[in-house]
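Structure in, sequence out. Go:
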């Protein structure tokens, strides 16, 4: 058995950031356990067809968190990145419009514009109707029935779940109401109005895939990482874990960034809390490479069309230098819609934590019970929240400062 001051489960962005924060503060008694042979988690890159392929799909570095960028530039300097203005589009009703949808309906035919404007004017949130509790009804209440049916409902079904009403609405409430005035103004002036989405500008490496920055972070702590060490059991009383090959590790403080549902067993906290972990749900996503170039300047293309298996296209040759082709993101349950063999495909068994009904209460109990034992959930999987990598880095930096 090996004991350290800090034991970190997972060498993705969260675990690597926390570990490097320790290193930069002069701490040496820490260890990172990673089940894969390489660091990076969902942000790993591999070489496919002569250029990088990001196995986790569309992960880029947002510009909105300067402290996060400054931290990451310590490992991969800013001059090794390219800065892009985001070009995202949606293919809907045999037409292509900019993202976000409600700000760009002026790009649709006139009949579609009129129908959508009428539906926004009648949307429940714009008419004082009470907020519904079910996901599908909430989307229609928030956006109007046209945007809901044309885009939001089919897209979310393809990306997350066939049973959308299993999802809660708590994670959507931060979305602004769709303004009839702004939408009408955009139709009359032929330009977008209203709130712009995240990643309006983003960084991507010049010569590498997005996984490169995480590899460099791992290299900085190479003597403190054990690879191919998949954790099987967690003992909260002892703050110890046992791996599938039988090794046991103990810590004064433990930071877990891996899915809670990965553990075969958890002991040392209330049985009721442990059972609730089984109610957490996530989706698996396949990324699939296609070698031909697309005639578009877009980097992201969202595809709500039900007859097509994939929900998103990442146009590699529009952000990854000296590359060609694109990759598709497809929920695992829809991959059987493809015909023939893929040129390259990778299945991410844990891609998106699902914001199901009751999840906040479950996670609040899990995190509170474990924190009492100096075990901290961190990041997309440790907190079971759909965080982007820049948010995860920020959270890890804050947690390292706190403890």
């Amino acid at each position: 058995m090996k004991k350290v001051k800090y034991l970190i489960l997972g060498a993705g962005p969260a675990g690597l950031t926390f570990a490097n924060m320790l290193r930069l503060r002069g701490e040496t008694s820490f260890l990172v356990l990673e089940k894969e042979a390489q660091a990076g988690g969902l942000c790993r890159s591999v070489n496919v067809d002569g250029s990088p392929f990001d196995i986790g799909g569309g992960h880029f570095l947002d510009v909105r968190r300067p402290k996060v960028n400054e931290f990451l530039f310590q490992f991969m300097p800013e001059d090794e990145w390219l800065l892009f203005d985001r070009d995202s589009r949606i293919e809907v009703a045999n037409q292509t419009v900019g993202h976000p949808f409600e700000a760009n309906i002026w790009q649709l035919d006139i009949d579609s514009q009129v129908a959508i404007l009428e539906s926004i004017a009648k949307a429940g949130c714009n008419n004082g109707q009470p907020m519904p509790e079910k996901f599908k009804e909430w989307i229609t209440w928030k956006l109007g029935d046209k945007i809901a049916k044309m885009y939001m409902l089919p897209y979310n079904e393809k990306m997350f779940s066939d049973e959308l009403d299993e999802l809660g609405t708590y994670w959507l409430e931060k979305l602004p109401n769709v303004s009839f005035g702004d939408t009408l103004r955009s139709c009359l002036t032929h330009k977008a109005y209203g709130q712009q989405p995240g990643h309006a500008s983003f960084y991507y490496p010049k010569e590498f895939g997005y996984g490169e920055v995480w590899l460099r972070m791992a290299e900085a702590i190479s003597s403190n990482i054990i690879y191919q060490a998949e954790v099987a059991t967690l003992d909260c009383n002892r703050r110890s874990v046992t791996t599938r090959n039988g090794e046991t590790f103990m810590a004064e403080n433990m930071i877990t960034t891996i899915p809670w549902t990965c553990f075969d067993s958890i002991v040392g906290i209330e049985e009721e809390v442990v059972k609730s972990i089984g109610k957490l749900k996530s989706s698996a996503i396949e990324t699939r490479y296609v070698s031909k170039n697309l005639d578009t300047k877009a980097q992201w293309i969202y595809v709500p069309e039900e007859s097509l298996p994939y929900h998103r296209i990442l146009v590699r040759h529009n952000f990854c230098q000296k590359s060609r082709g694109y990759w598709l993101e497809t929920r695992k349950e829809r991959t059987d819609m493809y015909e023939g063999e893929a040129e390259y495909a990778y299945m991410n068994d844990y891609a998106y934590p699902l914001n199901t009904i009751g999840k906040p209460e479950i996670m609040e109990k899990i995190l509170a019970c474990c924190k009492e034992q100096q075990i901290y959930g961190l990041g997309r999987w440790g907190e079971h929240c759909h965080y982007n990598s820049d948010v995860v880095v920020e959270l890890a930096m804050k947690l390292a400062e706190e403890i």
